Design the sequence.
């Protein structure tokens, strides 16, 4: 079985993420999306909420598994029999950052490759932080995120706002 993993904090998952997952899932028998904890960020949604939203956003892709994860992704990939780590790139800045991580991962676990997928132009400016900022001011972000996420953002900023 050809298996790959992709990871992120997904706070929240965007349509750009979903597009990446759809394309990557076409290349592998199974794509595991791990929702990670990033200690450098203060998430709007809990880990459980992010996992649930991601499961809803990818329910139409039959060969995707979503689960929470803490630790080193390349070790997770090796332990779970994945041959590749999937990363999305929006710009050369993303590449510069991801290239170093890919090199380190290759040093730690040589049998796991990192594959980069370029973001579609219509999603090149979309990031979770930009979406959250716009939503926090009451902007309609429904064209940038899956419907369950748009509703969750509306609710979060109505309650927290």
Sequence:
């Amino acid at each position: 079985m050809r298996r790959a993993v992709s990871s992120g904090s997904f706070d929240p998952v965007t349509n750009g993420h979903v597009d990446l997952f759809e394309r990557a899932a076409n290349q592998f028998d199974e794509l595991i999306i791990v929702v990670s904890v990033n200690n450098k960020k203060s998430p709007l949604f809990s880990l459980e909420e992010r996992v649930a939203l991601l499961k809803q956003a990818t329910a139409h892709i039959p060969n995707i598994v979503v689960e929470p994860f803490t630790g080193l992704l390349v070790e997770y990939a090796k332990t779970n029999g994945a041959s590749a780590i999937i990363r999305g790139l929006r710009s050369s800045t993303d590449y510069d950052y991801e290239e170093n991580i890919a090199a380190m991962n290759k040093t730690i676990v040589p049998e796991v490759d990192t594959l980069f997928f370029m973001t579609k132009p219509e999603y090149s400016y979309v990031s979770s932080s930009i979406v959250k900022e716009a939503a926090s001011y009451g902007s309609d972000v429904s064209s940038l995120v899956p419907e369950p996420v748009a509703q969750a953002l509306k609710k979060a900023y109505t309650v927290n706002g």
User: Anything to note?
Assistant: Strands lie at 3-8, 30-36, 64-69, 84-89, 113-118.
